[in-house]
Amino acid sequence: MTGTAPLLSMRRLSWSVGGMSIVDDVSLDVAAGEFVGVIGPNGAGKTSLFNLLTGLCKPVAGRIMLAGRDITGLAPHRRARLGLGRSFQASAIFASMTVHANVQLALQAAAGGLRSLRRTSDDRILHVLSDVGLSMLATRPAGLLSHGDKRKLEIAMLLAAAPAVLLLDEPLAGVATADIDSLTEVIAGLAAGDSARAVLMVEHDLDVLLGLSTRVAVMHQGALLADGSTAEVMADPAVQRAYLGAAT
Ligand SMILES: Nc1ncnc2c1ncn2[C@@H]1O[C@H](COP(=O)(O)OP(=O)(O)OP(=O)(O)O)[C@@H](O)[C@H]1O
Ligand SMILES: [Mg+2]
Predict the structure, then answer these.
(1) Which CATH class is domain 1-83+163-248?
(2) Where is the ABC transporter domain (predicted)?
(3) pLDDT reported for residue 150
């Protein structure tokens, strides 16, 4: 593996169902420390692209490399082990268990199951909870958390696996306005500083997403329409025509 290889690399990825092209020849490199905002109109193929990355769907063409390793044919759990984390729905949380116990379970799962039960470090749990700002709520049953705090717990559970790449598909959806700011702050921390991690996030609220992103990728009808700095992408006439025009 070379130190200069992108953390995540998509090469000419395509996916189609029943002859209908849904992801069309997408190539994109993501480096450690990058926060890539993925935007595009409804049905543009954003979630489908994430499904290809996590292995939920198999591409009809193209390759996916993670830290220089070809993961195109790997099962989802093997990709997760190699460092690809994806946000789940809040139902992945055990409502009757405490916040702490949920993170403990996630840590154990990431470490390979019950064998490591006793070795699960409480320090790790506290660290992850502190990363998402839930330290004060550690003993609360997870079911009693607000939607925003449930999302933070979900993120904490993802962090338990120490992912190199995090895929967040509309993590702010369904979260009350009052909770958006603090959740956004947690998300902003995920690839901050000299982080070795990269984040790809889909979000329809452009103000929020552009505030978080170091780079923006625009999808339109399955294809990557544009990719670059926020300023570049937003000034691109093709983007304005295809996306901004369609969205407003
Ligand atoms: N399993 C599937 N079978 C058939 N069509 C599918 C399947 N999954 C997605 N599609 C279609 O592919 C297109 C892209 O869907 P996708 O969910 O990836 O879009 P999206 O960009 O995530 O949209 P949104 O912003 O609404 O979440 C849509 O037309 C959708 O109906
Ligand atoms: Mg989607």
Answers:
(1) alpha beta
(2) 8-246
(3) 93
